[in-house]
Scaffolding protein
Amino acid sequence: MADEQDDELLLTDVAEEGDEQEAPETPDAEEFVLELEGEEAGDEPPLVKKLRQEIRDRDRKLSEYAKPAAPIEVGPKPTLESCEYDEDKFEAALDAWKETKRASESQAEEQKKRQDAQQREFQDLQVKYQASRASLPIKQEEFDAADAAVRAALPEQVIMGLAKYVDNPAKVVAALGRYPAQLSKIADEPDMLKQIFMLRDLEKNVKTSTRTPPPPPERDTILRGSAPIAKKEGDPVGDKLLEKALKSGNMTEYNRHRKTLRAKAA
């Protein structure tokens, strides 16, 4: 149908339509950092420092979650009897117990805050990712395959960085699915911070567009743009048939007439 659209996802200045070429080389993340104006050689711009610190913090938190701190044991509340009816000893033990109880409650509260903050961030990034996915006019099967390939190739911290620091993360994921050489190049980079910058740079070269395929040509019609058909001299019948055919677009009668003339001439 003429109204059906064929959707394309292309990397800018990469390939003509229909060509199967690799995506353009992503600018080196380290070179990107060194080319920032206003920074002396060797100095990291604020954004780089911020990203690097967040990656360190995330690694530390992941390590903490992997090895959670042992919960503070409060123990039973001391009694005068457990203190051998020594009031001074009892008051000291009770004060220590209350302090331990406060520390235990504070520990539990901090752990809950960290878990809630992590959950909120995860949910916000999921909403952003799904919204960017909804804006892409590509088939769900293709996107699912690209998403699975990216998750298999890149560390979880880089996936989080992709969702957090790239404006349209789903578009980048779809591009990496269509250009696996780019995904391999990013996956081969050992520095996770550089990987995130490579993804940000790649987004600048991703371009989406749509096109409507032309309708199939109808049967017995003249192709527009073809060479003009010359009239046969001394053939008034053929001239009328040709004029009629050019108006209607149907060459059947004219072709039949020419075939009859060729048969008589033979």
Notes: DSSP finds ten helices and two strands in the chain. The two ends are 45 Å apart (CA to CA). The chain has two domains: 6-211, 218-266.
